[in-house]
Amino acid sequence: MKKLLTILGIAATSLAYSQGMFMLNNYSPHDYHGNLMAMNLSGCVPAVINNDPATIIVPANSHMGNSLAWKIDNYRDQFASSLYPINNWLVTLSSSSSTVRSWNHASLMPGSVIANNTKWVTSKFSMYYAGTSNKVVGFNTNLGDATPNTCISSVDYFSTPDGSAEWFTITTGTTTTTYLQIYP
Q: Where does the UniProt annotation place the signal sequence (predicted)?
């Protein structure tokens, strides 16, 4: 009986951190330039962040409504399904060990230890005037899971005169989707 309860507890903990889907809806007239990080908030590792490209660019007015949203199903499948694919990820397994892993590396497959023990937690980004290399002054932040922890420092809502952004997660049954929404 103890073994069964232990296994159920581990499974429940895994599901609590299961990576889930990520969706960025950029409804603003500005281009998003940023990165995306997933991690385990219990011990801060594993942690995974896009490495190539190091900066993802999601153009102005790119969202689910026009099928131009940045959608990541998981570390592996995003390569074929995302409009903004990540070629490889920087994976941190300890405070002294980071490794670049390609999108199809076995450790990043759905159901892997890394995928099951990380969740999308933050995006560090700046907004740029559409199609230019000119930043929108003051429209940059670390946005993400605002749950108090020792791993990251993020807010889940940010507002400037040029726009606002919010981060939230919706779980329905066993499906978890994390959203980053950027508004004009």
A: 1-18
Q: Residue 125: give the domain boundaries.
A: 2-183
Q: Which two tokens stand for residue 94?
A: 């300890």
Q: Which residue type is seen at 104?
A: N
Q: Residue 163's pLDDT band (boundaries 50, 70, 90)? A: very high
Domain tally, the chain: 1
C-beta atoms surrounding 167 within 10 Å = 23
For residue 94, with 0-12 CB atoms within 10 Å meaning exposed, 13-18 middle and 19 or more buried, which class applies? Answer: exposed
Query: How far is Cα 51 from Cα 55, in angstroms, rounded to an integer?
Result: 8
Measured between alpha carbons, how far is 142 from 72 in angstroms, rounded to an integer?
19
Asked if 67 contacts 58 with a C-beta cutoff of 8 angstroms, the reply is no
**Half-sphere exposure in the Cβ direction for 51 (13 Å, CA):** 15
3-class secondary-structure state, position 55: coil
Strands laid side by side in the 163-172 sheet: 70-72, 21-26, 175-183, 163-172, 157-160
**Quick check: helix, strand or coil at residue 68?**
coil
The two beta strands, 21-26 and 175-183, are: parallel
> Residue 48's closest CA among 68, 77, 75?
75
For residue range 118-156, list pLDDT tens digits in order: 999 999 999 999 999 999 999 999 999 988 888 988 899
